[in-house]
Design a protein that fits this description.
- By secondary structure, the chain is an alpha+beta fold.
- 15% of the residues lie in helices and 47% in strands.
- The chain is built from 4 helices and 9 strands, in the order E-E-E-E-E-H-E-E-E-H-E-H-H.
- The chain has an 8-stranded antiparallel barrel with strand order 1-5-4-3-2-6-7-8.
- The termini are far apart.
Length: 164
């Protein structure tokens, strides 16, 4: 299934509220390729392979294809993935007509917290007012993209020190 993903990504230093009341998904993901981005993901008990194009409009918009796969296919592809496997808990936080997807990383990047907000149009994304607890917009730079975190570990040896 094809769609255009339009999102803004923020680095978070501190969460000013209790997350225990929000729904969440346990996510594990790995990358087979970075250009184009080919990702495999386990979200709770669902499995997907995703193909994403390069970003447009300051990295806000990307064409994305999500294909369901079996657990067996996921495990087979996981053995072929490059870099490290990312693990995180994704909290779904209502924000008016939007949902903030708050990723609290575990494993290698324990302590890293990123928030993403998805939109229907680029115009809507550009008009969005960030929450006061969002530390830094990292959309344009791509420095905290999941594929970079997984495939270029050497760039992020000091990532946790940067955000503390």
């Amino acid at each position: 299934m094809e769609n255009t993903e339009i999102e803004i990504k923020y680095l978070i230093k501190e969460i000013p509220f209790d997350l225990s009341t929000f729904k969440y998904h346990e996510i594990e993901q790995a990358y087979l390729c970075d250009s184009p981005t080919i990702r495999i993901r386990k979200s709770d008990n669902d499995y997907y392979m995703t193909y994403k194009t390069k970003g447009k409009d300051d990295n806000l918009a990307r064409t994305e294809y999500n294909l369901p796969i079996t657990k067996e296919s996921y495990l087979h592809l996981l053995d072929k993935a490059d870099g490290c496997v990312l693990t995180k808990r994704r909290y779904l936080i209502p924000d008016g007509k939007y949902t903030i997807e708050l990723d609290v990383f575990s494993g290698k990047y324990k302590g890293l917290i990123l928030a993403e907000v998805e939109f229907d149009t680029v115009k809507e994304a550009k008009a969005y007012k960030a929450k006061d607890w969002f530390y830094k917009d990292v959309t344009k730079s791509g420095e905290y993209s999941n594929s970079k975190l997984a495939l270029h570990e050497e760039l992020f040896k000091d990532i946790i020190e940067k955000i503390q």
